[in-house]
Design brief:
Pfam family, one: E1-E2_ATPase
CATH superfamily of one domain: Calcium-transporting ATPase, cytoplasmic domain N
Helix content: 40-55%
Distance between the termini: 35 Å
CATH topology of one domain: Calcium-transporting ATPase, cytoplasmic domain N
Mean pLDDT: 85
Keywords: ATP-binding, Cell membrane, Membrane, Metal-binding, Nucleotide-binding, Translocase, Transmembrane, Transmembrane helix
Shape: elongated
Bound molecules: adenosine-5'-triphosphate, zinc ion
Organism: Arcticibacter pallidicorallinus
CATH class of one domain: Alpha Beta
Catalytic activity: Zn(2+)(in) + ATP + H2O = Zn(2+)(out) + ADP + phosphate + H(+)
Oligomer: single chain
Enzyme class: translocase
């Protein structure tokens, strides 16, 4: 990741000091500038040394001190912008033109030193992100016909079988096919407790989509194998692995900017010309008050340095970068400064039920046969159709049917799914409908009562109709996630005053789950578009609402909310792409950490604004009134810039305390 040497300079703009001139060179140049300045200064006191000797040495100091500033200034000028670098060079050249070479060289030296330090501090935050890529091993042991071969991970192909030794890093995203044991997934998901993995028999299966593989069979590149040897079938190329995409998303500079970022950008657009105008006026001071031009010039330059908005410009980007880097290490991916700053300020969160607050793995609780059919018949027919659905309810029915009977499969065709209701299909020539009560509007009073009774016990209730006759009722029940109740109470303690469950399931089930995890509001029976309306309604009342989901069928609602949060993003491509904030683990418990980090980032950004604006507010009057010299202004200016950056770096060490 060494090509990530892109520096935000104090104006967010021009590309940084790339390639061979890394930030190390920048620091060396600055030190050279300082050394030449010192030598030149000392030589000027030695009698007998001709005056042009120190002059030549000062010119060398100018060169090294002004090199990067000139590069930056030129880059911005091409885009039609004046920036702080331009101002600095103007000031230094102005001093030189008045014969004050030492002053000019000092200005450039301090400026370049401040910026070199600032850039290496920013690099520290960036390295924290690129360190993610070191998580993945460089090579993998792959099984070939001739034996085991060690190859580069870039050369791994889909369906290769790699052998992962105990206590070593897993080289690819894939499915365990042999061996079982615990895997430490904390590098990707932030989960501190290792997760048990068991093999999945995939012999003879041609194509496996990693999104369909259960968590207990699935492993990610960059996670750490425990004490067992695992054989893994590769399901993703190295470049497409969850880790690679995580790194790509984290270092994506085009990600959503935060409001503060837009504010500071805006300020700078109006501010720099304002400063230039003020400086122009101050340059003319000698016309109105009794002083020489050089005195006016010095004052103007000091004001210019004092007023330069370097610290302001870097205050937000540095905090955003550090906050995002810290989040990524904790298994939380913020897509840019926008979500990072906004999440902590939220007071309302909507949750999807299935798979988010619950496990998303419902169990069959009852089968009721109606009208002369048998329970097995009902279950089998339902399972035959549900085999074509990937809804969690379908999985429960299919599993239960497989356990009970092994009758040959019936012929199923024309399966269509009706969003939020159920399925319709042709089975051996009969029209079969499977779905919730609201799917059927012509139920007899008896059947309806029976089904409603089951719902009131907290069951998800599914009716099966064959050729327009109800033949049975199947009920399933999902269990709340073990960490859900605790997370909800933590969120409440964090000041999230409104938490709402949105569910396509019936109201009784929604209420029952909400009751078990201590949530007060549950809105059930929602069709997908009604979930969108619910978000809109919440947005109207609460202004900002986050939506937590698994990204499977709630992506539109997540997109509509202020901050869309996806869980289990490590296992789902959709979730990783659509969310503003992705919780890499499939655990709700990283949500309080994410909110805590977001709030801390927000605090740091605010502190940084105070520091940067405060310094300008102090220095500008002092320089105008001739109380502070230009050297003082440079020290104050660069000092505040560095302070802001180091304050931001504190975020890298953020710890969530429950
Ligand atoms: N394949 C299916 N088989 C049987 N019933 C279904 C099926 N798909 C949907 N349903 C019925 O429609 C209801 C709503 O489904 P939908 O997919 O909109 O919500 P969900 O994802 O199950 O729940 P939640 O909104 O809580 O996440 C389900 O509770 C179920 O009663
Ligand atoms: Zn600066």
């Amino acid at each position: 990741m060494s090509e990530h040497h892109h520096h935000d300079h104090c104006h967010n703009g021009a590309a940084g000091h790339d390639s061979i001139f890394g930030s190390k060179t920048e620091l060396q140049f600055s030190i050279l500038a300082g050394s030449f300045l010192l030598v030149g200064f000392l030589l000027s006191f030695i009698p007998g040394v001709s005056t042009w000797v120190p002059l030549i040495i000062y010119v060398a100091s100018f060169f090294f001190g002004g090199f990067y500033a000139l590069k930056e200034a030129a880059g911005s000028l091409v885009k039609g912008r004046f920036d702080i670098d331009f101002l600095m060079i103007a000031a230094a050249l102005g001093a030189a033109s008045l014969g004050e070479w030492a002053e000019g060289a000092l200005l450039l030296f301090l400026f370049s030193l401040g910026h070199a330090l600032e850039h290496s501090a920013m690099d520290k935050a960036r390295k924290s992100i690129s360190a993610l890529s070191d998580l993945s091993p460089k090579t993998a042991f792959v099984k070939r016909a001739e034996g085991v071969e060690e190859i580069l991970i870039e050369e791994l192909r889909i369906d290769d079988i790699v052998i992962v030794k105990p206590d070593s890093k897993i080289p690819a995203d894939g499915v365990v096919v042999k061996g079982s044991g615990a895997v430490n997934q904390s590098p990707i998901t932030g989960e501190s407790i290792p997760v048990d993995k068991v093999p999945l028999d995939s012999t003879g299966v041609n194509h496996i989509d990693i999104n369909d593989v259960n968590a207990e069979n699935r492993v990610f590149a960059g996670t750490i194998n425990g004490s067992a040897e695992l054989h893994i079938r590769v399901l993703k190329l190295s470049a497409d692995s969850t880790l690679s995409r995580l790194i790509k998303l984290v270092s994506d500079t085009k990600a959503k900017k935060s409001r503060t970022q837009r504010f500071t950008d805006e300020v700078q657009i109006h501010y720099v010309p304002g400063v230039l105008a003020l400086v122009a006026i101050l340059l003319c001071a000698f016309l109105f008050i009794d002083e020489s031009f050089s005195e006016s010039f010095y004052r103007a330059m000091a004001v210019l340095v004092a007023a330069s908005p370097c610290a302001l410009a870097i205050s937000t980007p540095s905090a955003v970068l550090s906050g995002i880097a810290r989040g990524a290490r904790g298994g939380v991916l913020f897509k840019g400064g926008g979500p990072l700053e906004e999440l902590g300020g939220l007071r309302a969160i909507a949750f999807d039920k299935t798979g988010t607050l619950t496990e998303g793995k419902p169990r069959l609780t009852s089968v009721t046969a109606l009208n002369e059919s048998s329970e097995d018949e009902v279950l089998l027919l339902a399972a035959a159709v549900e085999r074509h659905s990937n809804h969690p309810i379908a999985a429960a029915i299919v599993r239960a049917a497989d356990e009970r009977t092994d009758r040959p499969l019936t012929r199923v065709s024309e399966v269509t799914s009706v969003q939020g209701h159920g399925l319709s299909a042709l089975v051996d020539g009969s029209r079969v409908l499977i779905g919730n009560i609201s799917f059927f509007d012509d139920l007899s009073e008896d059947v309806r009562k029976l089904a409603l009774g089951k719902e009131s016990e907290g069951n998800t209730t599914i009716l099966i109709k064959k050729d327009d006759h109800p033949i049975g009722i199947i009920t399933v029940m999902d269990t709340p996630r073990p960490e859900a109740a605790e997370t909800i109470s933590r969120l409440r303690k964090l000041g999230i005053k409104r938490m709402v469950m949105l569910s396509g399931d019936n109201q009784q089930v929604a209420d029952s789950v909400a009751g078990q995890i201590g949530m007060s509001e549950a809105w059930g029976g929602l069709l997908p578009e009604q979930k969108l309306d619910s978000i809109a309604a919440l947005l109207k009342r609460e202004e900002h609402v986050a939506m937590v989901g698994d990204g499977v069928n709630d992506a539109p609602a997540m997109a509509k909310s202020s901050v869309g949060i996806a869980m289990g993003a490590a296992g789902s491509d959709v979730a990783l792409e659509t969310a503003d904030v992705a919780l890499m683990s499939d655990k709700l418990s990283s949500l309080p950490f994410a909110i805590g980090l977001s709030r801390q980032s927000h605090r740091v950004i605010k502190q940084n604004l105070w520091i940067s604006l405060g310094m300008v507010a102090i220095l500008v009057p002092l320089t105008i009134l001739d109380v502070a010299s230009i050297g003082f202004a440079v020290v104050g200016h660069e000092g505040s810039t560095l302070l802001v950056v180091f304050n931001a770096l504190r975020l890298l060490n953020y710890q969530y305390k429950a």
